[in-house]
Amino acid sequence: MENFVGWYTHPNRKNLFINKKYGFLYRRTKVGSFHLIPQKMTLHQEIC
């Protein structure tokens, strides 16, 4: 598995990554870019 600066790998999915700064989930595409996965925001995430 490749290591990316600023990203954690998802424990169960090889193409999902977690942004270290904000904690959002991203899906890595075949070309190497990252796309944000839509998620419901908690109150804490909306305030920050």
Report on this model:
By secondary structure, the chain is mainly β. The protein has a domain at 15-47. Helices cover 10% and strands 29% of the residues. It is built from one helix and four strands. It has one helix at 43-47; strands at residues 7-9, 16-19, 25-28, 34-36. Strands 1-2-3-4 form a four-stranded antiparallel β-sheet, with no helix packed on it. The termini are far apart. The model has no long low-confidence stretch (mean pLDDT 81).
Output the number of helix runs.
1
Q: Termini separation (Å)?
A: 31 Å
Beta-strand share of residues: 25-35%
Q: What class do helices, strands and sheet pairing give?
A: mainly beta
Strand order of the largest sheet: 1-2-3-4
Question: What is the H/E order?
Answer: EEEEH
**Largest pleated sheet:** 4 strands, antiparallel
Q: What gross morphology would you assign?
A: globular
Parts with pLDDT < 50 across at least 5 consecutive residues: none
Question: Which percent range fits the helix content?
Answer: 10-25%
How many strands? 4
Instruction: Give the averaged pLDDT, no decimals.
Output: 81
Radius of gyration: 11 Å
Summary keywords:
4 strands, 48 residues, 4-stranded antiparallel beta sheet, globular, single chain, mainly beta, 29% strand
